[in-house]
Give the backbone structure.
Amino acid sequence: MTKTNHGVNRRQILTRGALAAGATALAAPPVLAQEQITWRMQSHWTPGIEYFDSIYAEFGRWITEATDGEIQIEALQANTVTPTNEILGALRRGLLDAAFIFPGYWIGRIPAAGHLNGNLATWENHEEMQMFFYDMGALEIIRAAYGQFGIYQAGPISFAGLAVYSKKPIEKAEDFSGFKIRSTGTPGRVFEKMGATPVFIPGGELYQSLQTGVVDGAHWGCVSTGWGMNLQEVTDYIVTPDFLSHSNGEFIVGQEQWNKLGEDHKRIIHSAVRAMSAKASAHFRFADFTCMDTFTGEMNKNISRVSDDVMSQLRAKSLEVVDEYSSEDPEYCGKLGDMMHEFMRLTGKV
């Protein structure tokens, strides 16, 4: 028997802040009752940081509510079932069903994940980012790359910009020379081309590494996510503008688990991903401005602004890295690299 209340409940997600931020409608037609599905989802985040509940756990609640409870999501903190860097294997083996995570962890195995994470100084707003993935077709190529590992790539979720916390000002290109920066993925390669020394440091060691001078600066997502790691306590500058307007997270699912879903549930998840990306983008950006106001007003610290010339150089170096990945992974990054160059041309950035 068809449930008569599905049409209303699956629209409840529309009423949330993501829709006001411009998300795609999540309406779905009524469907036949299905057996309850329970998924264990793990993140690289831990309770205690504000966005663990307001973004990560909330995303799971959206899906549960939008499916009238037919999909139950258990939101697990980092390292509950498996270490973060082993999540792909856990998804393949069925130890986990899904992950709300950061694609930078897989770039060594899935180079196309670097394009999902984002390339420095390319797209400038949420609309341009979504245009690249959905309208230009980049996400389909990335899904094919993940599919080789038995993973379904449901889509990017914005973690807002890529902000650098620093112990010294960064304003001109010369300031990058010898600058020790905690960085990962494609941004690290770009910073290296700018003369910096990228160092990978696990999140749990980041605070102490800045405090003791192991590194001079670091990025942990946007201003507010870095704030959640207390980076403001051990640095004197926040560098603006963001070197990347949207550093994306992702929602990924074990391919076998994804294949078991009905088309109605798949549509709801796809829509929830796009809606949460819009909500998270606005949520983090508002928090960024609030944090920077506290940083300068209450903590008497400084905002450092790089010159337009630095941004131009970052853009050029970033495209060099795009081309390097294209040559290393022609099957997937090669196509994505051509698409990125076309995006840059269409938007007048090159």
